[in-house]
């Protein structure tokens, strides 16, 4: 009984941690199963898990619930139709709507973190989850861009090949973190614009949100030590 109560308490206190965990687990699935025949199905299941986690986090933030659920249902439905039909237009629509869902989740998490001057444990998880959510959102925009404009992305090892979603996600993380370690390069003008927008978003996120959380944490410790 006590374990059940503690589990419910953890679920209610740290919803952002479960979104972060779902995304980390999905990265492992991408690495391990992307090349397998059944890999696409396994990754699709991971995508559903992330969608549910994203909506769950939004439900515990100031955002409107119905917007998140509508975007999640649309994404899931269009993804199934695209998988069954192979229609590029449906796949592009699914990618764009899923990107919107992730950006909406990120904005909701940022609003949650900026709502007060207290830094809680869940807000620290939210800061990490927001970063990964933004990276996923831009990765889906890259995927849509690649479908609309073939050969939008290339690298030095395999030019003129379609980049996998894991490669585009790797590019997204590299750009958002400003590490510049990605061997994948944008070629078309629209792809380069998307990369520049993500670089700007990454710098703005660190400058505004992360620095604020760090500053508040330092002030709290200074106040306790007085």
Characterize the structure shown.
With 226 residues, the chain is mainly alpha-helical. It has one domain: Orthogonal Bundle (Helix Hairpins), CATH 1.10.287.70. Helices cover 78% and strands 3% of the residues. The protein contains 8 helices and 2 strands, in the order ααααααβαβα. It has helices spanning 2-13, 15-33, 39-59, 65-85, 88-113, 121-148, 165-176, 189-225, and strands at 153-155, 184-186. The chain has a two-stranded antiparallel ribbon with strand order 1-2. α2 crosses α6 (121-148). The protein is globular, with a radius of gyration of 19 Å. Residues 1-11 have low confidence and may be disordered.
State the gist of this model.
The protein is an all-alpha fold and 226 residues long. The protein has one domain (2-225): Helix Hairpins (Orthogonal Bundle).
Largest sheet: 2 strands, antiparallel
Please tell me the total number of domains: 1
Total count of helical runs of at least 4 residues: 8
In whole angstroms, how far apart are the ends?
A: 41 Å
Overall residue-averaged pLDDT value: 80
How many DSSP E strands? 2
């Amino acid at each position: 009984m006590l374990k059940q109560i503690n589990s419910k308490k953890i679920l209610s206190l740290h919803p952002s941690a479960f979104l972060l965990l779902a995304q980390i687990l999905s990265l492992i699935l991408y690495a391990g199963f992307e090349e397998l025949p059944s890999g696409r199905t396994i990754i699709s299941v991971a995508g559903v898990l992330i969608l549910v986690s994203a909506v769950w986090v939004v439900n515990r933030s100031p955002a409107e619930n119905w917007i998140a659920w509508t975007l999640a249902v649309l994404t899931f439905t269009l993804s199934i139709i695209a998988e069954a039909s192979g229609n590029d237009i449906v796949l592009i629509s699914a990618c764009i709507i899923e990107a919107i869902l992730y950006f909406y989740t990120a904005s909701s998490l940022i609003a949650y973190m900026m709502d007060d001057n207290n830094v809680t444990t869940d807000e620290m998880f939210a800061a990490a989850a927001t970063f990964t959510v933004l990276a996923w959102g831009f990765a889906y925009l890259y995927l849509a861009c690649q479908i609309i404009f073939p050969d939008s992305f290339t690298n030095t090892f395999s030019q003129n090949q379609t980049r996998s979603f894991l490669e585009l996600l790797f590019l997204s993380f590299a750009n958002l973190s400003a590490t510049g370690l990605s061997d994948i390069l944008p070629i078309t003008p629209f792809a380069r614009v998307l990369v520049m927008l993500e670089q700007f978003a990454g710098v703005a996120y660190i400058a505004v949100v992360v620095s604020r959380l760090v500053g508040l944490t330092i002030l709290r410790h200074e106040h306790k030590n007085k």
